Amino acid sequence: MGSVRTELPSGDDRITAPPPAGWAEARSRVYAVGLAAALPAVERPLAETDGHTLAEPLTTRTDLPAFPTSSVDGWAVRGAGPWRVVGRVLAGSAPAPLTQDGTTVEIATGAMVPEGTSAVLRVEESTRTPDGLVDGVPRAAPEWRRPGEEAAAGEELLPAGALVDPAVIGLAASCGHDTLRVRRQPRAALLVFGDELLTAGPPGAGRVRDALGPALPAWLRRYGCQIRPTDVVGPVADTLPAHVAALRTALTGADLVCTTGGTMHGPVDHLHPALAALGADYVVNTVAVRPGFPMLLARLVGTDGRVRFVAGLPGNPQSAVVALVSLVAPLLAGLAGRTMPVLPHATLAEPVAGRGDHTHLALVRRDPVTGTAHPVRHVGSAMLRGLSVADGFAVIRPGTAGKVGDEVPVVPLPLLPEDRAW
């Protein structure tokens, strides 16, 4: 990657931009640089690991279960019946062995099965004789979980790179873990560029309401970033010194700084020269995708050797979200040490136009009954109405159009886990 440059050809005030990267190529490129800069491993208590990524494989500290465990309420018996009751075993206790044939202990679900047990008789399938003995016919299949039935001690249950969710937290606890080694979550910041933006009230008199400053932090949190209200700054004044100062400040504490607007080369677009002033390298500078074309990702290495990234998102709201799913999502997967996200596929229920030599990311909603993808309305790059009812973007490859019945990749929107539709 070469240094970021803004070259003014002689006699011309336009900056010569490099050719755009293909959409799939751009995703692969940013994932690779993210993976190369994967964040360090940290030890966290189980209760603090939700949404993190395993930094090492999850293994069990003991056999799972660690001891024979009754699957039912009933009687642990030895030998042939009827059986004389000699005790009771509840969960959480270590019982004495059954040493004599014809004896039994009452046992609760989850309790440790005594040594010497030949069978467990379900309580609902047992009877009591007039002299107080227990009688019945145990089922042929054992009614207890054997040690190591789920996993043997030291067995790998999940690989490094797996996402930690509530199910994983519960599994880790059942294996005897109190903490997990996970990747530190990336810290993000957001700089909003544009003097024309309002931060309160309705738009008017040539000024528009900033929709990205309030929305993008929520998207970033859904991707696993940490971002505080104080990490959102803007609107930043439309001057080069203000852009450089804002970027330099944000980069001191963030692994990723997202910016909105200023990705072109207009009279008040200062992102490119600001990156040059900071000594950044382009990873990607423009992507052949519609909407969202003027997007970028730059890489900076500080004097401390730490790698930081700047994602330049377009100012139009839908284009900014296209840049988010195209560049930021795979970058964050790499930083977290995860595998490259695999895109699900869906069948188009309606045709979707192509965009010539560019990839078209078309907003679609998923039919919950058929699972088919339906294009939504109000999808201009400056519009958010279509985005608010969509589940993801259908990927229409360059030089093609989407026909009814086509199976196409879909980029899911970064929704909460319980809301993911694909």
Automatic annotation (TrEMBL):
Glycoprotein among keywords: no
Which protein are we looking at?
Molybdopterin molybdenumtransferase
Catalytic activity from the UniProt record: adenylyl-molybdopterin + molybdate = Mo-molybdopterin + AMP + H(+)
Q: Gene3D superfamilies, per this entry?
A: MoaB/Mog-like domain, MoeA, C-terminal, domain IV, Molybdopterin biosynthesis moea protein, domain 2, Molybdopterin biosynthesis moea protein, domain 3
Q: What class of enzyme is it?
A: transferase
Specify the species: Micromonospora qiuiae
**Cofactor section:** Mg(2+)
In short, the EC number is 2.10.1.1
Spans annotated as Disordered: 1-21
Protein family: Belongs to the MoeA family.
In terms of superkingdom, the source organism counts as: Bacteria
The protein's UniProt keywords, in alphabetical order, are: Magnesium, Metal-binding, Molybdenum, Molybdenum cofactor biosynthesis, Transferase
Residue ranges constituting the MoaB/Mog domain according to the UniProt record: 189-334
Which pathway does this chain act in? Cofactor biosynthesis; molybdopterin biosynthesis
This molecule's function is given as: Catalyzes the insertion of molybdate into adenylated molybdopterin with the concomitant release of AMP.
